[in-house]
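#dry-run=false #mode=assembly
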Amino acid sequence: MIIGVAVVLLILVGFIVSFLFIYKNRQLKYQTEMESVKEKYNQEILKTQLEIKEQTLKYISEEIHDNVGQVLSLAVLNLSAIELYNTDKAAIKIENITRLVEKAVADLRNLSKTLDAENIANVGLVSIIRFEMDLLEKTGIYKTSFKLFGEEKRLNGQKEIILYRIIQESLNNIIKHAKATFIKVNLSFSDSHMSIEISDNGNGFDTAGSTEKNIYKNGAGINNIKKRAHLIGGSLDIKSVPSAGTTISMTIPYTQ
Amino acid sequence: MSLLIKIYLVLSLLTLVSCIFTFREKEAYQKFIIAYLVLLTLTCIASVYVANVMLENNLFIFHIYVPIEYIILSFLYKNIIVNAVIKKMILLSIPFFVALSVCFSLFIQPPDTNNSTMSIIESVIMIFLSLSFLREILLFQQATALHKFPLFWINVGILVFFTGRLITEGMLSYLVSHSMVLARRIFTFGFVFKYLLFVLFIIGVFCGRPSQALLNRNR
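#status=ok
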């Protein structure tokens, strides 16, 4: 009887200790996995923020070179050619120089409004997409359309940064590869999720046949866009037909 | 009243009182634990009274006790198990078990005999449910410190109790007709599992507050 009781107790203690040990191991493994996922997420956010900054700086440097630099060079040229002894001609030249400098100031003012990642938190995704579309329209190459459906709902700050980067990448890809003349962005907010649709009337591509690396040689590409959409709990769908344009549709829930 | 039954009664009352005074949050699962302990205590008192005072066959009490025990424990597991399929199965099994118990009591094992068959069926089901819950604890990482998770100890207690009952009930019916000496030994040995049930319940009651995850889920 005593032996029986001892055996039962031994089995019970063994069972409890084993179970606690297995549980602890699984818990450690789970915590390690969670930390790894969190680490990857943070790295992705950092990478996204750096890419946005890089993009912003690139844009600013191009604008300074193409616009502001040219305008100020012209102003200097006009200044060096002023005929001080001919007051009428000098007055006209000074007026031209004034207009050129005013244009340079206006261009610089616009540049200063160029938003980077930190500003998304202040102005929101809708404003920043509108800004991007306005910049494209100003180039004179593209006709753009931006439509908002529903009332804007703010997402978590990091989600908005990643979304902005996805949209920026998509627009960059249109500029580089699509040879489009019309770009449309539709943004809709429902009760549970947000939808973004970016479409163009460009070359399109064969989504089935071609490899993604061939299509987008900048290294970001569709894979990157899909990975980022998945990271924030969203889904991405790309529809494209050669010579008939491309449509990128994204759905992002408010809570992940 | 034998010493074994006295110890059983003391332990059951001790566990019941501990539960009533320690379970402050009054979560749903705590009510079922208290109800179960009340049932165990009352069944013990009733069976002792009928056997020792009224000098009658007290086995009919266990024909009533087993279905009520099944109902209480089923609702306990329905409350704590996450898996929706198992929850639904538990709910559907309750009327089925009660009906089966009534049929067995009327036609197969009358109230003046030991209802070993229904006890064995109940034990198998309860072992399955307790193992399912243990599996869920492992899968869903429900507690940061498992040794402080009351339901872990309570569930192990139920697992041990019904494993013991499965073994003893399975052997008792056979041994009673073949060797009363051995049957008495097995019956005495069965009390070990009953004591362990109460000891593990007491450990569960005092080991710590329920995990936040469970509190949030029950809300």
